[in-house]
Recover the amino acids of this structure.
């Protein structure tokens, strides 16, 4: 059944039924009900509250309320030195700590104007792509749970555990790494690192295919996500969407390609966008599809980096880290492609202090979530869950 | 002047070209171009024309700044002002980027809202209001977004003093 339109008073609905017959329902207007989803609702992925005004099972309006996890990131930044902010960035998007660190570090490095050793760049890309896979696995697994499929979640977390132990091995922490530092890395990678990552890729490649067959091509899953929550490309751009969300709407925009940083220009990878054959461009399934396909691209990037990474015995990963980080006066907006989209930092330095005057984090989930009000209009409540899941929010980053 | 233009990196030169276009149209309403290599920007001197400038930047076929990457509030205690910094760019056709600054008085100042031009500005402006307290004129839904609605003060102002208690809970610790 598909709803085609609604009269202004909401009392008339035009509906296309499954057998293509179009019927008009009149005098439907009943009493509106306020339904509060969250803050402890499992499908809101953390502490987000949605205040839905519903007409029967149809959502008339859904207003998100945030701030339950607000930890004053920006206020802290004004009170600590530049390197001391790195651990805080981990705690914003806790599922992709490496990517958050990378975005912050390249922003400060732009202001400092320092050259980074090539080996450091390769290690940074490898760890952040590993983290991107881990983050997408959580996104896909929890999305399946939202829609009632429990098994893919267990598959995803089993494979994610391998990445977590790899990253724990090099940094000492499972999720909050503090590994990428301004101007370098906390440590060089262990001796066997390349071998272990290559082993992981060999193990993981068939699992990606398995997961694709298990979930993405699953009929029930497709029925729950196909043609739900469509976002046209121009509206998505106007809403400032980025990352898999924007690519799900068919816009080929990836900061690794369009505003390249680190060593991404040397690497060969595709930017997957849905072609409209398997899904309707811009619907929930497209967004899921982009994430599923991006895992393959990340694996490609990691294998290339393993081949190209220069071997340097007794490499000191802290060699070019400045003793005291005090950037010249100026301001910078730097960004990187996070698993959830564009993570940007706007940093102002006065040239005198070792603390930033202003450090704003442009969170990708925050911006992606802001379209929720428009996306949810006229949807059924179960579809609302599918839409929130497809946005893939991490409330740590939304609230900062 | 020509020499200075030659020293600019290609990215800054692109921003300069876009800036020249806007300057030609709005003249005195906007400031000179700041050609720093990390974030080239200009300032809107006449804040009341900010929405016109924003619409022109979005809709002019040579500019097409259809994507607002970021909008951050900033405090300028020395000037007695608070302001916003918008990072704008185009997705699809051009590669130019440009940042725009708009400032207003610290106490009771207001900036026209551009949430009708870029939807993404809606929540960003709410956040800037929440943290700095400038009012966005014409904003459809100007409420606090991250702090609780009955919070007092604007936390990111440099002279912010945290309240002693909030609903009977001791705040500073």
């Amino acid at each position: 059944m598909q709803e085609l339109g609604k009269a202004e008073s909401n009392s008339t609905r035009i509906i296309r039924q499954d057998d293509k017959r179009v019927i008009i329902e009149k005098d439907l207007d009943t009493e509106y009900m306020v339904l509060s989803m969250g803050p402890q609702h499992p499908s809101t992925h953390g502490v987000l509250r949605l205040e839905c005004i519903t007409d029967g099972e149809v959502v008339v309006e859904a207003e998100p309320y945030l701030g339950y996890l607000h930890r004053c990131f920006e206020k802290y930044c004004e009170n600590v030195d530049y390197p001391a902010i790195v651990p805080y960035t981990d705690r914003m998007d806790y599922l992709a700590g490496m990517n958050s660190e990378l975005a912050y570090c390249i922003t400060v490095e732009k202001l400092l104007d320092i050259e980074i050793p090539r080996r450091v760049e390769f290690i940074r890309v490898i760890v952040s792509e590993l983290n991107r896979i881990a983050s997408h696995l959580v996104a896909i697994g929890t999305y399946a749970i939202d829609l009632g499929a429990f098994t893919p979640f267990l598959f995803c977390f089993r494979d994610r555990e391998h990445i977590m132990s790899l990253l724990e091995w090099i940094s000492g922490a499972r999720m909050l790494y503090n590994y990428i530092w301004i101007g370098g890395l906390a440590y060089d990678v262990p001796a066997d690192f390349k071998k272990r990552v290559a082993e992981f890729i060999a193990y993981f490649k068939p699992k990606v295919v398995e997961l694709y067959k298990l979930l993405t091509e699953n009929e029930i899953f497709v029925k729950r996500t196909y043609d739900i929550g469509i976002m046209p490309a121009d509206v998505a751009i106007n809403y400032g969407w980025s990352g898999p969300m924007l690519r799900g709407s068919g816009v080929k925009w990836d900061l690794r390609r369009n505003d390249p940083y680190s060593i991404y220009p040397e690497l060969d990878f595709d930017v997957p966008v849905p072609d409209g054959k398997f899904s309707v461009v811009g619907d929930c399934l497209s967004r899921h599809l982009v994430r599923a396909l991006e895992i393959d691209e990340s694996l490609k990037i990691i294998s290339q980096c393993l081949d190209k990474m220069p071997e340097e015995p007794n490499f000191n990963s802290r060699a070019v880290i400045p003793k005291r980080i005090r950037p010249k006066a100026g301001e910078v907006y730097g960004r990187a492609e996070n698993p959830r989209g564009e993570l940007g930092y706007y940093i102002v330095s006065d040239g005198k202090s070792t603390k930033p005057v202003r450090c704003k984090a442009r969170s990708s989930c925050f911006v992606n979530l802001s379209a929720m009000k428009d996306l949810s209009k006229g949807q059924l409540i179960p579809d609302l869950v599918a839409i929130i899941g497809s946005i893939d929010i991490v409330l740590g980053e939304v609230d900062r | 002047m020509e020499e200075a233009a030659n020293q600019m990196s290609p990215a800054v030169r692109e921003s300069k070209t876009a800036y020249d276009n806007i300057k030609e149209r709005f003249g005195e309403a906007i400031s000179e171009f700041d050609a720093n290599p990390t974030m080239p920007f200009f300032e809107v001197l006449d804040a009341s024309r900010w929405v016109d400038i924003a619409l022109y930047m979005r809709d002019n076929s040579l500019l097409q700044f259809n994507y607002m990457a970021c909008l951050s509030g900033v405090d300028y205690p020395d000037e007695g002002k608070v302001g916003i910094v918008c990072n704008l760019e185009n997705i699809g056709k051009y590669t130019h980027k440009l940042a725009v600054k708009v400032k207003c008085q610290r106490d009771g100042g207001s900036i026209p809202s551009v949430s009708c031009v870029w939807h993404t500005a809606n929540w960003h402006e709410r956040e800037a209001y929440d943290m700095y307290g400038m009012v966005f004129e014409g904003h459809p839904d100007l409420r606090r977004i991250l702090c609780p609605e009955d919070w007092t003060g604007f936390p990111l102002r440099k002279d912010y003093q945290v309240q002693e208690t909030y609903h009977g809970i001791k705040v500073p610790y």
Q: What stands out?
A: The two ends of chain A are 40 Å apart (CA to CA). Residues 2-65 of chain A form one domain. Chain A touches chain B at residues 66-67, 70, 72, 74-75, 78, 110-111, 234-235, 237-240, 251, 253, 258, 330-333, 335, 342, 344, 346, 348, 358, 360, 362, 366-367, 370-371, 374, 399-400 (CB under 8 Å). Chain A has a mean pLDDT of 86.
